[in-house]
Amino acid sequence: MDSNSLNLLHSRHSNIPADSTAMVYFEQDCKKDREEHVVDLWMGLLERHNALMDKTYFADSEREREKLSEFRHALPEMINEIVKQRKFPKVGTDIAVPEKAFPEMFRFYKERLAVSEIDFVIFGHIGESHMHVNMLPKSEAEFKKSRVVYMDFVKKAVGLGGTVSAEHGIGKLKHAFLEAMYGKNAINDMAMLKKSLDPACILGLDNIFPKELLT
Question: Which end of the chain has the smaller Cβ count within 10 Å, N or C?
């Protein structure tokens, strides 16, 4: 979670240090008789990488794990509350890039968002170089700008060898992003393949491919 995420959570979870700029959340399953050993391994890892040990929290019981899970899921819930208040959809990315390209991609996120002046939070799966940028527009103009910014992210990620959809699919909203990744000719070929398997085009019409290519 980035600093904007933590600032948002701070209103509900006052135990978050006010000067924190990021948080990394780890989960590991292990057998009961190995818990102490696993915790020791994590302590050693964190110390070697200069983590802030006084700001590190271990959930070492079922009750504490439930509390940490609640904290983990509070951010998406708070974002949904903001979306309801503002009455404009969030614009959330689903981009992943190769591991070596992640620092460059993350810098691009921050630089592009800074000049956009759109409210945002960034959180996600850093171990997979797959962070979700959630832009939170306050007006129709900001919503349209968010879609333009998203396409800038897509083009950057594709140039770095990444993917426009790492876990949530293409659906009806990401047709242009898929085309940016593969090109128009490849999308036409894919649509033709779908029509050969589904001549009546009754399966998932307008999902993945625009319906104009299938009718």
Answer: C
Q: Domain 88-168 maps to which CATH number in 3.30.70.2740, 3.30.200.100, 3.40.50.300, 3.50.50.60? A: 3.30.70.2740
Strand ranges of the sheet holding 130-135, from the earlier edge strand across to the other edge: 91-92, 130-135, 120-125
Phi, psi of 132 (to 5 degrees): -95, 115
Phi, psi of 105 (to 5 degrees): -65, -40
Strand pairing category for 91-92 and 120-125: unpaired
CB contact set of 29 (below 8 Å; sequence gap of 6+): none
Closest of 207, 130, 129 to residue 167, by C-alpha:
130
Q: What is the pLDDT of residues 46-88, one digit of tens each?
A: 999 888 888 888 887 888 888 888 888 899 999 999 999 999 9
Taking the domains of the chain in order of start, what are their residue ranges?
1-74, 88-168, 183-213
Both tokens assigned to 192: 């033709």
